[in-house]
Design brief:
The complex is a heterodimer.
Chain A: E1 6-19, E2 22-35, E3 39-43, H1 50-58, E4 65-74, E5 77-78, H2 84-93, E6 95-98, H3 102-105, H4 112-122, H5 129-142, H6 148-151, H7 161-173, E7 179-183, H8 191-208, E8 211-216, H9 219-225, E9 228-233, E10 236-242, H10 243-248, H11 253-261, H12 301-305, E11 310-314, E12 317-320, H13 322-334
Parallel strand pairs in A: 3-8, 3-9, 6-7, 7-8
Antiparallel strand pairs in A: 1-2, 1-4, 4-5, 9-10, 10-12, 11-12
Helix pairs in contact in A: 4-5, 5-7, 7-8
Chain B: E1 7-20, E2 29-42, E3 46-50, H1 57-64, E4 72-77, E5 80-84, E6 89-90, H2 94-97, E7 100-103, H3 107-110, H4 117-127, H5 134-147, H6 164-176, E8 182-186, H7 194-211, E9 214-218, H8 222-228, E10 231-236, E11 239-245, H9 246-251, H10 256-264, H11 270-275, H12 306-310, E12 316-319, E13 322-324, H13 327-331
Parallel strand pairs in B: 3-9, 3-10, 7-8, 8-9
Antiparallel strand pairs in B: 1-2, 1-4, 4-5, 5-6, 10-11, 11-13, 12-13
Helix pairs in contact in B: 4-5, 4-6
């Protein structure tokens, strides 16, 4: 990828939680790049490390969590070297985040307007109070809140769930960040509201040219909004590629398993679901080899011994599985 | 289903209101959680109930087995009325609890943290005096745990030692302990991880085939409901707006609400999901404290007419076994 086009580059990021029971390697060496105006989906189950990874970008990782290795470069600067003051200016201005549950992220004793204006004034964009208020009303209108002039003076509890998430998005975008991290933004919402929010995010992304990291466990949501997808399992990225490749040509057994085990509204007949057997691994005692090995249908001896490296299986499409190397070895033998 | 359909449960005009406390400035008001719902569940089928949060699907499920006392209406189980507000029938539920069981949404909240798994499953056996002998009881518990894919050694462990998927299995074993005929599955997989969901869905299907169970399967995820159900009922603000055979209902929905609901479901298929046209609803669900007049959906319905706000539509049959409540359908 062209150097100029890269907004964010994560290299071999490692995040651990130091618990009384031992070190939990929540994120164990993940790398990816995100271009300008690109939407990257991060899919994984609970405990796969997808949120932890996002929190470390924005510097919100809480003790006992700690980044123990790797770099996060944003427009060429390593974020891990930022001090708290620099990070404060960075957050909101360049990167902002929306969370799963908007009610816990909005301050219940301030009006929506107060919180939007505060975001602007904090970042010293040269707005007067009146200008900031005007801009806040514009933002609320942009995210589809009717009657914004009146709504701005209401408190979060006077908003419905979908409205709160809209207000959160307005707040996140008010300083025109280059990167928006969305951590399960639609999981707590009903499907019809989820559809509204997804349409809104798609429209805003086009209009404001914001890059988005979209974290979710819902494959349907990923298919709809993302350009590229990283599939995470137990702290590792197991497969990464363009959205069409991930859905139509999945290579890693875990990705294949996820797709086969999800019932689809558009399937023809009633087929039995093919589940992924077993349970996710205990991160306190990870297996020696491939983390997915114990649940994998195609597990080989080497899978239990060594961690698999990435294989390039298509253009910009990588998958970490020993199966790809078995094929290659086979071909080499033949020629 | 080839065999003749036998009605197991018949629900007529069921209502469940919850009182909201008033004060000197405010009259006591009622949340109309379930408002005038009538339908039947056939023996051996899975009836799915879908709807958004607050539509009353969970309340309906719980009211049917009388975990909530109905406000009015009639419930007939296998030919015997267990509740009838007009004839003032309210049967003693203990014998019926052996026939009707429930699996709850949040497995960690529905298992007593101080009881071992063996005690949790065994409690049901004790209440109904199913296993008088100690050895017999232990054997039965082991058998039940085995049925849901747990080990016999799990019987001595506490719920917190299990993962979410395993806890849900314990919940299922508890429901199966009394050999019920009918199980209300109230969002049994919503709290589970994607890869575990399919394990539990398959298990529920296997158990149904083996024990000829009847399910009322409540969930908000329509893809899952369509997969597991024979028929689906769609609820909106306490009322049933459409009811039909599951594939027919999902491929040819006739009620405007069902149509929007289905078009809102994200498809795990990038080309299809980006190509399709979505019907987007304006606004949010109105409060069930103060439901709209006439058709409850008319405030958000893109096709609403004057009649919709004045008159309540009734559930009518528009295709074989395909019911809907909408004025627009009546004309043609």
């Amino acid at each position: 990828m062209d150097e100029k086009k890269t907004l964010l580059e994560v290299k071999d990021l490692k995040v651990s939680f130091f618990t009384p029971a031992g070190e939990v390697k929540a994120v164990n060496g993940i790398s990816y790049t995100l271009g300008y105006n690109e939407v990257m989906g991060i899919v994984g189950e609970s405990g796969s490390g997808k949120s932890v990874e996002a929190y470390s970008i924005i510097g919100l990782l809480q003790s006992p969590g700690k980044v123990v290795g790797g770099t996060i470069e944003f427009e060429g600067e390593n974020l891990l070297e930022y001090d708290e003051e620099k990070m404060r200016q960075f957050r909101g201005n360049k990167v902002s985040m929306i969370f799963q549950n908007p009610m816990t992220c909005l301050n219940p004793v301030y009006t929506i307007g107060n919180q939007l204006v505060e975001a602007l004034l904090c970042h010293d964009k040269g707005y007067t109070k009146e200008q900031a208020r005007k801009r806040a009303i514009e933002m609320l209108e942009l995210v589809g809140i009717n009657n914004a002039e009146k709504r701005i003076d209401q408190y979060p509890h006077e908003f419905s769930g979908g409205m709160r998430q809209r207000a959160m998005i307005a707040m996140a975008l008010i300083c025109e960040p280059k990167l928006l991290i969305a951590d399960e933004p639609t999981t707590a919402l009903d499907v019809t509201i989820q559809a509204q929010i997804l349409e809104l995010m798609k429209a805003l992304q086009k209009k404001e040219n914001t890059s988005i990291i979209f974290i979710t466990h819902n494959l349907g949501v990923v298919a709809e909004i993302c350009d590229r997808v990283s599939v995470m399992y137990a702290g590792h990225i197991v497969e990464q590629g363009p959205v069409n490749d991930i859905f139509y040509n999945p290579q890693h057994p875990y990705t294949k398993g996820l797709l086969a085990s999800t019932p689809r509204l558009d399937e023809e007949g009633k087929e039995r679901l093919i589940p992924i057997e077993g349970t996710p691994i205990d991160l306190l005692n990870p297996p020696q080899g491939c983390n997915f090995g114990p649940r994998c249908r195609d597990c080989m001896k080497i899978c239990l011994r060594e961690k698999p490296p990435f294989a390039e299986v298509g253009e910009g499409h990588i998958s970490a599985c020993w199966l790809h190397f078995r094929d290659q070895a086979g071909k080499e033998d033949r020629t | 289903m080839n065999e003749e359909k036998k009605v197991l449960l018949e629900i007529t005009n069921l209502r469940k209101y919850f009182a909201v406390k008033g004060n000197i400035f405010r009259r006591r008001r009622y949340v109309q959680a379930v408002e005038d719902v009538s339908f039947s569940i056939y023996k051996g089928e899975t009836l799915g109930l879908v709807g958004e949060s607050g539509c009353g699907k969970t309340t309906l499920g719980r009211t049917i087995i009388r975990l909530y006392e109905p406000t009015s209406g009639r419930i007939v189980y296998d030919g015997t009325p267990i509740y009838d507000s007009e004839q003032k029938i309210a049967a003693d539920m203990l014998p019926y609890r052996r026939k009707m069981q429930i699996i709850f949404q949040d497995p960690s909240a529905s298992l007593d943290p101080r009881m071992t798994v063996g005690e949790i499953v065994g409690e049901a056996l004790d209440i109904h005096k199913l296993c008088p002998g100690k050895a017999e009881r232990r054997e039965r518990i082991n058998e039940l745990l085995d049925e849901v894919g747990l080990n016999t050694e799990h019987a001595n462990r506490f719920p917190h030692e299990f993962s979410g998927g395993q806890q849900q299995r314990v919940g299922i074993a508890r429901a199966l302990a009394v050999e019920p005929e009918f199980i209300v599955c109230d969002e049994p997989i919503s709290a589970l991880d994607v890869s575990i969901q399919s394990q539990v869905v398959n298990m529920l299907e296997d158990l149904q085939a083996e024990k000829r169970l009847t399910y009322l399967f409540i969930a908000h995820d329509i893809s899952v409901v369509r997969h597991i159900s024979n028929r689906i009922g769609v609820m909106y603000l306490g009322q049933m707006v459409e009811l039909g055979e599951s594939y027919e209902l999902c491929s040819h929905p006739i009620h405007p609400y069902t149509q929007t609901l289905l078009s809102a479901v994200p498809l795990p298929d990038p080309v299809k999901s980006r190509a399709r046209q979505r019907i987007l609803l304006e606004g949010d669900i109105p409060s069930p404290l103060d439901p709209p007049s006439g058709c409850r959906f008319h405030t958000r319905c893109p096709y609403a007419t004057a009649r919709c706000s004045a008159e309540q539509p009734r559930l009518k049959e528009y295709g074989p076994g395909h019911f809907a409540a909408c004025h627009l359908l009546e004309k043609g």
